[in-house]
Write the structure tokens for this entry.
Amino acid sequence: MVSIMNSDWQAYESTHTWHPYTSIPASPAPLAVASASGVYLELEDGNRLIDGMSSWWAAIHGYNHPVLNDAMIDQIGRMSHVMFGGLTHKPAAKLIRQLVEITPQPLTRVFLCDSGSISVEVALKMAFQYWHGRGRKKHRFMTLRRGYHGDTIGAMSVSDPDNGLHKMFSGLLVQQIFLPAPPLLTDDLLESERLTETRKLFEKHHKECAALILEPIVQGAGGMRMYSPQYLQILKELCVEFDVLLIADEIATGFGRTGEMFGCNHAGISPDIMCLGKALTGGMMTMAATLCTATVADQICASEPGVFMHGPTFMANPLACSVASASISLLLDSDWKQCIQSIEAQLNESLSELGASRNVDSVRVMGAIGVIETHRPVDMKAATAVLLESGVWLRPFGKLIYTMPPYTINKSQLSEVARTMAKLAAL
């Protein structure tokens, strides 16, 4: 085995490994990364790429950050893991306090889990148990079209049913209630037909719906769609009026990505339940969290069976808690808001002119998110060649070419990312 791994480990890996949303072997072949530092990925062949993806939006401080490394080194000398059933530890308590302090009030109860999809599953179960405790059979969920909430069964059921990611599993999933997709920032916000349909669905289904789950302000993998804070306020008001809980999936939008600490802050609203993940640990380890109000938690705990029915093996992993705490402190101690505004301004300046290109349908920018939507799907084989030649790493999907760079990226590096996006749009 040692000789195989030393001689041609890539050939072995490609024969035996599934990568996300690929066949075996993957095509085009994945690039082999030897190390990463700052905003750069160092490849095995010696090439170096600026990572414009933050490792799927998680590595907000870049790679190999000494503060995050030190937090993990210090914790691993104490304990890398201990079960959370019947036990607790300071790293979890510290992280929970930070999350309660920075999230919209009154989210004061925290469940620490191990991935974004699981945080969504936890949120759905919280909402169901809440209504079960109140003696109400509210077992379905409302969600927005063009949304994406993860790849586990519950999360798939509240993701867009027609965008291709989960369509083949429709027979396996609970049939949820899908509201119209939110209007893009360039659309008519108060377009009557959309709002009328949304209200009618609330009127028809609120007695059976436990919650509305949505991605605040920016819909991520379902289309990188950006919408108005006012529309989010309208949805919150409908939830209050019709007695439906609101679940905010902030897995992609949390920790400053949109220009506010959380997407909900743009609209000045607070959900009943919030999902966090991705940037929670600065991209160092897998970890997620689901927060809820005391009202939701108290009802669950006061009702049969008197406990919340979920418990992942690695929940509240001390190593992940420690680095998450360090990442949050690192973010709060920086001038992160000015940094995001600078990235937003540069992306707007660099990408806006591409909207007139014959290959481009639209250009969208919000915070540290830049998106080019083309008229036809991106040729990934051709795109990979352009990326290697340009020294930039991006991961287009469908008709979308986008960047969510580390917050530590400088102007020169971001210019390279924008130029490369323009090259991909011209393919």
Remarks:
- The two ends are 42 Å apart (CA to CA).
- Residues 116-133 form the longest helix (18 residues).
- The chain has two domains: 31-64+334-425, 70-332.
